[in-house]
Structure formats: structure tokens, C-alpha cells
Specification:
The structure is a single chain. By secondary structure, the protein is α/β, with parallel strands linked by helices. About 25% of the residues lie in helices and about 25% in strands. The strands form 2 sheets. The protein has a 4-stranded mixed beta sheet with strand order 1-2-4-3. A hairpin with a 7-residue loop joins β3 and β4.
Length: about 180
Amino acid sequence: MPDIKIATFNVNSVKSRLPLLEGWLAHSGAPDILCLQETKCRDEEFPSAFFEGRGYRCVYKGMKSYNGVAVISREAPDEFEFGLCDGEEDGREESENARVVRARFGPLTVLNTYIPQGKEIDNPDYPYKLRFIARVRGLLERKCTPEDRVVWLGDLNVAPTDIDVTNPKNKKSTSASTKT
């Protein structure tokens, strides 16, 4: 398999980041595969023409105002699917479909995820995040073998050091070790 350059970026609104993406793609030695998270736009509003005009193919799933994942690639994926694909239904399927995309390029599988925030350990969102991650593992076990070439990337919503957040001073608390 030839060398492949893969990049990932939580864009926090793909439409608002187009000028930044334009400059970065022009000067970065453009990746073969670009994975985006938190695109924050409906599918019909995704700026696919922007990427297609630069020689890319796009697969994406989004929602208005939050969530959204995309795989932007030089070659179209051989296959792709959105969501956790485990039949577990709890009313969050639309959100979960806009948080996970698995794309296969020949022998390489790219799993792009936007993991939910866990917030504080005693927050009800924390067990949901842990369950979500367990379900991602189940997805990998169902769809891939230990011999497969797999890249799991995205926004895992884990910030163990100050460099992992925009404004570390705003994120400090007396129980910093419980933040995820």
C-alpha cells in the first residue's frame, strides 16, 4: 500500500472554516484523506462543491447546529456507512449517525468519530459517553479483524493536558482529573 497522508480536524462548523481550510489545503501538501468532525450543517448544506473543486470526493452526515462527520478523500471510498450499526436504539440514532463514519479504501479502513462529551464523572452524559465508546469498539470488532489496517481518528473529547483545549484557564477546576 502506498503512503497515504491523513488529517483530522474538528471544524466546529465546516461552512465557517472554509477560508481556513482553503489556505491550509493549498499550503499543507493536501492530505489524501481529510476527516472532519462537528460540521454543524445539514447534508443538503454541506459544502461538497468546495472540496470537489479541489479534486476530492465527499461522504458526510450532519445535523443543523451540532454534530456532523465527513470523510473527504482524493479517491472515493470502496464502501462507507454512518452510525454504530449495532441495532441499539435509544432515541439518539440521528445524533449517532452524525457522529460516526466508517470508510474503506482498499485494505485501509478509516473510522472517523465525534465522541460525545462526558462532562463530569457524576453527570448523566458520562455513562453515555462510556457506552458510546464501548459501542465503537463493538463496531470495530464486527467490521474489522485484528489483521486489518484501521485508523481510528476524530474528536474523542478527551483533554488530558492544557495544550488539548483552547483556553486551559477556563477549563480548570478542583476536580480536573474527573474531566473528560
